[in-house]
## 1
Amino acid sequence: MLRSATRKIGSVYDRALAPLGINIAQYSLLRSVERLQPVSLTELARTAELDRSTIGRNVRVLERLGLVALERGEDDHREAAVNLTARGAETLDVAGPLWEDCQRSIETQLGPVRVTALQEILRVI
Amino acid sequence: MLRSATRKIGSVYDRALAPLGINIAQYSLLRSVERLQPVSLTELARTAELDRSTIGRNVRVLERLGLVALERGEDDHREAAVNLTARGAETLDVAGPLWEDCQRSIETQLGPVRVTALQEILRVI
DNA sequence: CTCCAACACGGGTATATACACCTTCCATGG
DNA sequence: CCATGGAAGGTGTATATACCCGTGTTGGAG
């Protein structure tokens, strides 16, 4: 049931972000890049608690969309240095309000008591 | 955060079910088949609130694992009739206790108040 | 200075998931 | 009785995700 609920809620965000051509996972990752840039794939993976290879592939998708740029680390030539592009930053600017509308809408449907409870649960997990 | 939490909890179930060679999605689907058999792909999709094509592919995996059998519907030759195999039923018998141990362990970690709250939230979504 | 263990990525493989489109089959109106 | 619309599946494509293993780089032990 948790998985099903997450899928359903995710699809609401996906539909909201669809006009921008990105989905919820890409939005999340883009925000992480924004917050940590320049950032290595390993650090992104640690932050998002995702497998490194997953991050690598997802970042490549964002790169193909022109939303992030990948360079080699200056010091450590093993590392990638991921940064937002101008287009990536613009996308986040537009996506932010859409995201928040979505969030508000869902929170309204849930009601304040359940929202607080859910936040507390997610903090513990 | 919801997605991340779901991934984390899912991986706990995945590890618990790993000795049986199935994951949480497969376990879920297998339980649906058990409950509804003989069942069409469309009905499984409706029940699980998943795309029909997703169900089709996931059922094919279970079939390859020898846990379900697919036949053509007797009346309507478009329909598939999915049934558990003996091996599928055995797998569920063994998986049930593992699943419940997992559930209990997670509920213990969350605490009874949050468990109740979460159940209520999932019911609403 | 050299060599090796540890680290960062990349690619292979497999599953889960969705959407769009195609084929086949059924059921019904004319 | 037949044509056609709609239902059931299947396939192509794309992304998300994880695990395993290979390659190349770094940094530190000796």
Note: The beta strands of chain B are 68-72, 80-84.
## 2
Amino acid sequence: MNSFTEENYLKAIYKLMGQGDGKVSTNEIADAVNTAPASVTDMLKKLSDKKMIHYAKYKGVSLTVSGKKVALNIIRKHRLWELFLVTKLRFKWDEVHDLAEQLEHIQSEKLVQRLYQFLGKPKFDPHGDPIPDEKGNFFSQKTFLLSEIKDLHVVTITGVVDHHPSFLQYLVKSGLSLGKKIKVRETTDYDKSMNISISNSKVSVHISYDVAKNILVTL
Amino acid sequence: MNSFTEENYLKAIYKLMGQGDGKVSTNEIADAVNTAPASVTDMLKKLSDKKMIHYAKYKGVSLTVSGKKVALNIIRKHRLWELFLVTKLRFKWDEVHDLAEQLEHIQSEKLVQRLYQFLGKPKFDPHGDPIPDEKGNFFSQKTFLLSEIKDLHVVTITGVVDHHPSFLQYLVKSGLSLGKKIKVRETTDYDKSMNISISNSKVSVHISYDVAKNILVTL
DNA sequence: CCATTTTTTTAGATAAGTCTAAATTTAATG
DNA sequence: CATTAAATTTAGACTTATCTAAAAAAATGG
């Protein structure tokens, strides 16, 4: 069994590794789990002993197959709980992250299975992130950053890069929720800000480049 | 904020205090939380510093008002989660205890409120135990042990003393679930075992004294 | 009411996870 | 490529919650 702390490290490493199998640095992890680099080194030794990571001093780390499995299971639980909170308990999508950070550590395979059934075997969480299945497989849609979309193209919002409550709240206030179809009307060369219109509502919104590069869309 | 461990001690002390405000002994607590008495003494000092318990060396402990409040909140969460697991996720009543022991430590007042609403502001958990409200108040029904009921009386099963899965499973197998109306047909003097009949089903069951004194009933 | 048993507390250690400060390794740069 | 800067690890210490063994207090019972 793994402790809460170990699970959090594995999750952080998983996220830092991204798609590729690149090595993750001690400082990156320290930053992600909000602890001193020296503490991270200690934990890396421990996770290495447990065969959860590949670790060679000064060389960075990557997850082993078992490490990846654990990480994906935590992520699965996190996203299922987020969806539960939003769809069943009427939480807003910007409120659920911290609570899910607690719930993701509840140990019970049966509970996860039942929750999964209860929610109707969902494929995505309230932020548009895919929910891994029991085996760790998940849908990976081809998404683009809204900031990369050329003028006059119509796209659908399917996710966010930044998950902070304040950003999510800003999106809601601007009428930009998941699933919305939008058209890029005009991009300003100078600051790369965009004027976009929301389909079926004549409404148009002006968003900064900073915002646009945190919104994921599909064609 | 209190740690998981502190919460478990407070819950244990609350349960050991029972109705009265009697003092609870170190050994009783050690037994309840499954740790060595010496460890309990350490924790008692800590809880005393935090003004959660009244503690004088060698004299036993009792909860302060804040200690009781914390304990009741944990119990509230425990019972709400048990009910959630049974009514929403189709767990059996004998499966939920250990899982609720984990879930009861999730910190979020909002979550508790929402769960409470979601479950329809319930008054009792799946084992017939009352669920304290936000303020720590709960219904206390006048219940009796089935073992104390005289022959030919009709009573309703409203709870259990022993919460162990094996006992609960035995009850289910014998058709003795919460809410069932039963009549005590005959008590055997020798071993105090009972022959009882279940209303609306002609079925009669023979139960030992050990079983009868772990079933709570109302007249 | 004194001796023995039981209960409780103290003392000293251990393991997990963290820290700061110092040492070491790697990377970057003139 | 030698020196400085940055990243990483080691060393030593702290906190929380636990343990065992020994000491102290309370309870029991002839």
Note: Chain A touches chain B through 17 residues (CB under 8 Å).
## 3
Amino acid sequence: MEFDKNVPIYIQIMDEIKHRIIAGALKAGDKVPSVRDLAEELKVNPNTIVRAYQELERERLTETKRGMGTFIRGEKELQGDKLKEEIGLSVAKAFIQKMHDAGIKDDEIVLFIKKAIDEEN
Amino acid sequence: MEFDKNVPIYIQIMDEIKHRIIAGALKAGDKVPSVRDLAEELKVNPNTIVRAYQELERERLTETKRGMGTFIRGEKELQGDKLKEEIGLSVAKAFIQKMHDAGIKDDEIVLFIKKAIDEEN
Amino acid sequence: MEFDKNVPIYIQIMDEIKHRIIAGALKAGDKVPSVRDLAEELKVNPNTIVRAYQELERERLTETKRGMGTFIRGEKELQGDKLKEEIGLSVAKAFIQKMHDAGIKDDEIVLFIKKAIDEEN
Amino acid sequence: MEFDKNVPIYIQIMDEIKHRIIAGALKAGDKVPSVRDLAEELKVNPNTIVRAYQELERERLTETKRGMGTFIRGEKELQGDKLKEEIGLSVAKAFIQKMHDAGIKDDEIVLFIKKAIDEEN
DNA sequence: GTGGTCTAGACCACA
DNA sequence: GTGGTCTAGACCACA
């Protein structure tokens, strides 16, 4: 995994875990890699993993059992889709807010989206 | 003006200037407020204004004429719309990148946008 | 039994044993459940039960007879009440210390107690 | 300041700040000592202070202004008393919960409080 | 000067 | 083995 140097690594690790949940690679009840293992895998200091896991816990996405590890929270099947829904909606809202701030109206937003998607391909 | 504490103030000031251009309050050739005036108006450290103006200059949106002040660049009429176009597109691209990262496909993106706009109202 | 994740499980198990003594379910001379049985009953790692029993022994609440098991100490009748008295007083003292630390005087403490009891109902 | 080795230092630092607010030594709007200054004063690693300040911010007791420092939040006069009220009530509730868990009834609680206060003197 | 992040690594309680 | 806390110290963005 490569890190974007403009974003704190612990945030990028949180995102990575979320992506794994959305992709279905991690389900509710699953054990997340141990701090040391993930630190080695990502070539990152264990403290940074600890930080990421603590923030995930604060977001109630994971649960830590003392001496046993960190686990994905929530009900088995729903977790991935619910998370995708939540993230998608909150990212979309922040985006719309930014566009409004720039003086761009709702119908123009859709045009920008289409153009941006076009240019990606 | 209130600042979002999660975003550097100098960025928010740059945005403020851009908004004024898009809104037509500042046009190409206009003189931007002096560092001292704007600092007082926004109740902000003058260094922060200096930083914002330097970044605007780096983006080639303004130009500084020695001893005369800082001015909006470009041709009179087009500046506002061109800026809106540029900002809209770059914000939209960043948004789409984030959605893809979260495992959301292009057609789902449109749905999220609609839902987000709905919930705003 | 559900565990509060902010308190070590072995402490919560010690408390559970104490509660059983206070409630009269365990009396002086009674044999405490075997490590294996209690581990199964509470769905907990047997090591954790061992730890809890060791601490209870250190507090001189239980005693282990080689090859026979672990037993509640003391004279038959008094044990429950004495324990309740001890726990009540030590918990109360710790509480008062905390309140003093927060700058709350003795007469205010009583008011807080009354309010807290009221709000519980 | 001496630290109780059973409680994380960052928690004890948070408590210290709260005490200063309750005592009126820190009021809303006041600047809290800088990370480095307090680290030196308390002979503690700066990271530990950072941690304490971040948690205080999460509790919405303080507010951080980038590059300027950390400040006590809230309205000027009320802060100290409100905080005292909040802490007092939450500590009292936790205490009553613990007493109930130990099989001690409300009217007995008051007796324990009195006895504990007596023995303190 | 101010707080934020990160590394390297120690020591600890807990299960 | 597992996560939690802490030190010592570097480097950074921001005001």
Note: The CA atoms of residues 6 and 22 of chain C lie 24 Å apart.
## 4
Amino acid sequence: MANPWTAKMEQFTTFSEEDRRRLDDLASLRRQHYEPRQDIIREGEHSPECHLVLSGLACRYKLLPDGGRQIMAFLVPGDLCDAEIFILKEMDHSICALGPCEVAAIPGEDVRKLLLDRPGIALPLWWGTLQDEAVLRARIVDLGRRDARQRIAHILYEVLVRHRMVDATADDSFDWPVTQTDLADATGLTTVHVNRTLQRLREEGLIAVEDWRVTVLDRAGLRDAAEFSPNYLHLDRATKDPRSVPGKRVEGLI
Amino acid sequence: MANPWTAKMEQFTTFSEEDRRRLDDLASLRRQHYEPRQDIIREGEHSPECHLVLSGLACRYKLLPDGGRQIMAFLVPGDLCDAEIFILKEMDHSICALGPCEVAAIPGEDVRKLLLDRPGIALPLWWGTLQDEAVLRARIVDLGRRDARQRIAHILYEVLVRHRMVDATADDSFDWPVTQTDLADATGLTTVHVNRTLQRLREEGLIAVEDWRVTVLDRAGLRDAAEFSPNYLHLDRATKDPRSVPGKRVEGLI
DNA sequence: CGACGGCTTGAGGTAAGTCAATCCACGTGG
DNA sequence: CCACGTGGATTGACTTACCTCAAGCCGTCG
């Protein structure tokens, strides 16, 4: 996977060669490796650089007074962990690598410079944050109005789509270094109930889980089980610039 | 209440006279009135202008295939409804006025011009969207890991704080044109259960509800019931510019 | 080998849901 | 002035999806 950051944004726009080169530079400047279960940034901290997931799976989470944990979002390659550090004094939640992760640390200063030099980049960047926000809203709908089976199906289907968005070679499976306890903390359920619900999705022939990898066996079935409606990902390309290269956008994602 | 938009952003920064004047102009240019239960913008629509709540209470919501509704956020004066229209082709959710609302319709073009003319406004504007996003995450924690009493207490306490943020004269009560059915759709509960839970909060002497107005009788008690932690609102002012007027920020919010 | 983390299973409990009726304030039309 | 309809709040009786507790299983690793 070349640069998942540009790949993600190219669902929305087409970059000039120079734009893409500058983004690639930023993404390869300071590469970091995180071990499974290692925090990338913690609640209350501030960092002069923001973090971009290059490979692996991470999550946004918050710890509760009673020791509980709520996972608010899964981060796939191409997602920014903490764009808020440009503005806010400290993080109001933490980010943790679930499996082994490659991460680019991007100095805030460089992003500011890039936005000045290459004004065409601001919009795709903003689009990315708006998509992230829409993903949060989708989670709210899940937690508020759907049962366990729908919640889990929705998360899995969404992660599949978001993976395929940044990796045109991906098939219907993806790495999933997520314990059932993690999934419980993301869906607002208990481990026990997640276990029984996953069993059911497997029995129904919708998914298979093996060796920390999920395979979607019946894409339409899983989509229906999740009542998945893709509009919130805003994958309809906005710019219709006739000069632009047609190629990059991944088709047939949903 | 003068201009709730600047009042909100002044929790974060201090504007120059000229900045404030320009913002005031935008907020008063095209004033609209919405009746209770009237949609301000609907899922699937696009609008050339974005909407700012000047007075009243509105909500972000999404309709589900089965006819259900999930309210994802309450909008108080000073909140932008649909900043995404600058970027995205269409809304992925709807906004509805809960009570009578005064709304400013701000042409996207004017915002772009303002950002170019007055660069100092970009950061406070961005801060606003980041706060909105943090409010969404708080809702996820609520829905995922808290029981009915905590959820309702948290929403009420948060709305109180956000009101006080934009209205220094506000006491411990606020307009609440929200039916128990609305509150059920926001908390992921049923009307029946919301009813019993509200009764309990009243019996405990934490709140009183009368004539579409909530009065918080025991602020500390409600805060504890909600396990409210204010850090996600990022009310610690970031800029420490010594030239700035000290006055505008509202103290003792929490 | 034992310890451990993650998965699985069973039995029993509870917060919240469902269904259905009643009450009350209101607005409206005859 | 009253009968009526309506939307919202309230209540009771019953059901259920999900939780709790507790044990057992299995592969991995030191």
Note: Strands of chain B lie at 31-34, 39-41, 49-55, 58-63, 69-75, 94-97, 101-107, 173-175, 207-210, 213-216.
